[in-house]
Amino acid sequence: MIDPEKQERRVAVAAQTLYLVNLMLLPGLAFVVLLILLAMHRRGESALVRNHLAQTVGVSAVGGTLIVVVLGLIYLQGGAGPYAWLWGVLYFTFVHTSLIFVGVVGFVKALNGNEFVFPVIGRWFRL
């Protein structure tokens, strides 16, 4: 039988893992799986599980919105011009890399069984 604390930690780690997979490997698909995980564990779970699920879903949604905005800016600049590369490189250098780095910190917190709030935007997302 699995200890309830270990099960909570596993769900928190799964949420953080899906967040990182969404950013680096399978964008969109991992987000859908993360939403399913949220639906499965939204009520009646521990504060640890609710914290990690709310943070990862919220920040993933913000990250997805940001990439749509950057793509929109590229389109408004005329597509494949020199500014398209500028916006793309700036986005991936600063925003995307920061989201990955902070996601790794959240992953380590989940492994240790600690709650985690993403800096700057994380306080907006609570369950």
Question: Strands, helices and their partners?
Answer:
Layout: H1 4-24, H2 29-41, H3 47-76, H4 82-111
Helix pairs in contact: 1-2, 1-3, 1-4, 2-3, 3-4
Structure commentary:
This protein has helices spanning 4-24, 29-41, 47-76, 82-111. By secondary structure, the chain is mainly α. The chain has one domain (4-124). Helix 1 (4-24) packs antiparallel against helix 2, helix 1 runs parallel beside helix 3 (47-76) and helix 3 (47-76) packs antiparallel against helix 4. The longest helix is centred in the middle third of the chain and has 30 residues, at 47-76. The two termini are 28 Å apart.
In short:
It is built from four helices and no strands.
Which key terms come to mind for this protein?
mainly alpha; 4 helices; elongated; 127 residues
* Contiguous helical run count: 4
Mean pLDDT: 88
Number of domains: 1
Major beta sheet summary: none
* Order of secondary-structure elements: HHHH
Low-confidence stretches: none
Oligomer: single chain
Which structural class is indicated by helix and strand composition? mainly alpha
Radius of gyration (CA) equals 16 Å
Silhouette: elongated
